[in-house]
Fold:
Amino acid sequence: MNGVKKVSFPSFTHYNYAFKYFMENGVGARYIMPPQMTLRTLDRGTKASPDYVCTPFKTTLGSMMDCLEAGADTIFMSMGLCRLGYYGELQEQILRDMGYQFDFVNLSEYSTGKRRDYIKALKRLNPRMSVAKMMLVLAETVKLVEQLDEAEAMYYKNCGFEKVKGSCKTAIKRYHTAVETATTGRELEAAYKKFKKEFNEIELDKPENPLKVGVVGEFLTAQDAFSNLDVEQKLADMGVEVYRYLNATSRMFHYKGKNLQVETSEYCKYDMGPTSTINIWAAKNYASHSFDGIVHIKSAGCTPEIDIMPVLHNISEDYKIPVLYLTYDSQTSDTGLATRLEAFYDMISMRKKVL
Amino acid sequence: MKEAYLGIDIGSISTKGVIIDEDNNILASSYIWTEGNPLGSAKKLLGILEEQFDKETYQIVATGTTGSARNLVGAMVGATMVKNEITAHAIGTTTLYPDVRTILEIGGQDSKIILVENGVAIDYAMNTLCAAGTGSFLSSQAKRLGVEVEEFGDIALKSTHPTQIAARCTVFAESDLVHKIQMGHPKEDIIAGLCKAVVSNYLNNVGKGKKILSPVVFQGGVSKNIGVTAAFKEALGCDIIVDENGHLMGAFGVAILAGRSSKRKVFDFSVEDMEFKTRDTNCGRCPNNCEIICVYRDGVLIDSWGNRCDRGAIKIGTKLAN
Structure:
């Protein structure tokens, strides 16, 4: 169909809804929703990856295979500020060596910071894309990402306290379906309004001063429930309010790195990588707002996140707040995770009773 | 009839059990090897406990399980409390030593550190991904050197000049060790070096960034090794308390927790004669292919776990089809 591509981006929490909206309505390409990741995804991704690479490389590679088999003919890959910036090039080569045939749009090759270069990348998906329309839809997409993140924050703050089990999950699933099928900005607004109304009507059984845990960590593993074995849900289910400042909204669209750095200057002088400043700030913020605990999530070998661990030690000591460090690789048994989470919960709840 | 509580701690290497009365006095206790068979060793353990236990005056009204096979054995004995080993250890030790500040624990496969303030755990850490510097490392090296792991401590104390052994990773430690043996280092120096290596590995990995304050309690199977205890004393520069029941602390803690909870169920030693079987099946209802473990008592399903969603839920009470 005159150069219009069937494009896909590897599975990454709820952001694929935003990608879909942007690609279909803004760029005018077709978007293939990546199939939900399963153990098979991780298995195939791990087999084709170098052993010591960070886990997100493996999951995104596996997801790319899933996308290509689901009918996509083009893969769109993001740029990044750490090793993520080199993911695309290597993944493309691996997939080609395996025999897949596809187009690969690697945003790293266009990341000059100039608008016309990004437009060049998008024009590869649809040569007749209208730039004016794309810019308009881009604004709507940014709004959508904010709403998706906000909905998720509401969800993890409250889902552990619902009276009828599963009612929060139903509400957010219904919202995601509405977003997936929306074609105009107005529909997106209506869906979000409806979700908020529905969600606020859910009956909760929340104590006056519930346990609060803040999550910090590496960009993909901390956010993607499949990659972190659903750690936020597991925590919430024990009866905990779970907060995570780190998301696309706060890291990409409303990122105030300089300010955050000034506010955390007693802990670190320099920016140490893509998410270190935001995580240190968030951890300090949780600690000073008398949260009960912090959970730090990273994939094995993630250097920027290893760098912030000594800072978290200091915050933990200064504010007397326990930090649970979780490292993920391609293991899928959650027994070890359950033991650590349970113990962490027992500890913070007993502590709260005494203090 | 007085109340009593049973606690069982089924670890990767050893199985521990205690029966306590209402005042936390130990009425019966035992420590045996798991030998890769948690159900069998739990049965054997119950047999030993039954012999020591005075059934005329006491009745077991609550049962707790902990350790890595806590779910499996919990289903078998009908536990009223199934708790992770970190909490169980913290509770056990703080009951015996209310003013303890640091609990060091090295077991067969894992090691942990628990920091305590005012009798409540305030921070903990556990080894991740790797079992370097735990009991299983010591026992495999003991085999290589041709000594019993139980004699390790006594031999280590004879050494005046411990050999330096790289401790970061078990595999590296082992090749370093072989090298030092072939160089001609005496056995007691090597064994003392191993004990030191376990301690420095522990302090660098699990204890990293944690403030270790006195009083310090050292427990877990490895605490029975006086060589390691001496190495801890030297490294931390303070006295180390090793309780004579330090290896039972997990079982003791979970027995206390079972007693404290309001759930009551009279425990009957007859489970020793029942037949327990486990079977794993693959769900197959989506590409996740969850492995579901089913536990059968005399051919009837009593529990199952491993499924990630409701699709894999299995009905309790189903008969085992042969």
Notes: The mean pLDDT of chain B is 87. Residues 2-89+251-273 of chain B form a domain with the Nucleotidyltransferase; domain 5 fold (CATH 3.30.420.40). The first strand of chain B starts at residue 2 and ends at 10.
